[in-house]
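Problem: given the chain below (124 residues), write out its structure.
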Amino acid sequence: MGNYNNWLAYQKGLELVIKIHKISQQFPPHEQYSLTDQIRRSSRSVCSNIAEAYYKSNYTKHFISKLLDASSENGETQVWLEMSYQFDYFDAKTHAELIELNNEIGKLLWYMIHNPQKFQQPLL
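Solution.
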């Protein structure tokens, strides 16, 4: 069954983290402690909450709770992506790619939340 690294939501989340990190390196210096920090934190939190959900997968309510946290952080990331685009920190093509990936992560999380039994780990 592997671990959270095998879950597509985690893989896509990590892909988004890396893209955001690279793109945000080009943000203006005055955004370092505000927008840059916020967008990096929220995108990273998606992955960390998915990992936490993995370790709670046999406790359905806790599993769903961690995935809901991941989903909330994913929503926050989308807000920061929208703001970054409106501030002209990246172009329309990049924006569309990032939003598409963000939406895909959201759909994957939604599926996991509504099908927790498919992600439960065997007890040792």
